[in-house]
Automatic annotation (TrEMBL):
<dbReference type="Pfam" id="PF02190">
    <property type="entry name" value="LON_substr_bdg"/>
</dbReference>
<protein>
    <recommendedName>
        <fullName>Lon N-terminal domain-containing protein</fullName>
    </recommendedName>
</protein>
<feature type="domain" description="Lon N-terminal">
    <location>
        <begin position="3"/>
        <end position="136"/>
    </location>
</feature>
<dbReference type="InterPro" id="IPR015947">
    <property type="entry name" value="PUA-like_sf"/>
</dbReference>
<dbReference type="InterPro" id="IPR003111">
    <property type="entry name" value="Lon_prtase_N"/>
</dbReference>
<dbReference type="InterPro" id="IPR046336">
    <property type="entry name" value="Lon_prtase_N_sf"/>
</dbReference>
Length: 183
């Protein structure tokens, strides 16, 4: 499938939600296309690559929007990860790519480590209303969801975060988070 592509310094995994501010005409076009069709690909901005995009992206749907002072604010939710190929620009300088869904983490079962991380994430959500407001239905009981939200929130480099995009990196992610968040 072909999707419009939005490169940003944003890391988003399946189930993740973020708010974007849209003001450039080409990205207003992207929003128009995304609402009519199948969403868009939100990829990590890579300034040293030909099209400034990563090899993967979060395939997102627009779940909410509002306009304020001429700027469009959209909330997007990642439904899966996709690989990007055949990237190109259209006449409005909007990127498009062929997108193929890729597997992320297999379903994980709850553990003591997960419960401790979930409790810590709930505490963070309760202290930060701006984050909590993005998630109408948090999934604290889901180990994958909890680990993904931590990876999105932690102040790590994109290179450090991208290690956890690999399909079988869940155990590595959970162990890393347990060490960092719970000592």
């Amino acid at each position: 499938m072909q999707l419009p592509v939005f490169p940003l310094p944003v890391f988003l995994l399946p189930g993740g939600v973020t708010r974007l501010r849209i003001f450039e005409p080409r990205y207003k076009k992207l929003v128009s296309i995304a609402t009519r069709d199948q969403g868009f690909a939100l990829t990590v901005y890579k300034p040293d690559t030909e099209f400034e995009v990563s090899e993967w992206a979060a395939w997102v749907d627009i779940i909410d929007f509002y306009e304020e002072d001429g700027m469009l604010h959209i909330d997007v939710k990642a439904k899966s990860l996709v690989s990007l190929s055949e990237v190109h620009f259209d006449e409005d300088n909007l990127r498009f790519a062929q997108c193929q869904p890729i597997n992320h983490w297999p379903e994980a079962s709850s553990s003591e480590s997960h419960i401790a991380l979930a409790d810590k994430l709930e505490e963070i959500f309760s202290l930060h209303g701006d984050i909590q407001s993005l998630y109408s239905d948090p999934q604290f009981q889901d180990p994958n969801w909890v680990c993904a939200r931590f990876l999105e929130l932690l102040p790590l480099s994109m290179e450090q975060k991208e290690v956890f995009v690999e399909p079988y990196s869940f155990d590595k992610a959970q162990n890393f988070l347990h060490t960092v968040m719970l000592g």
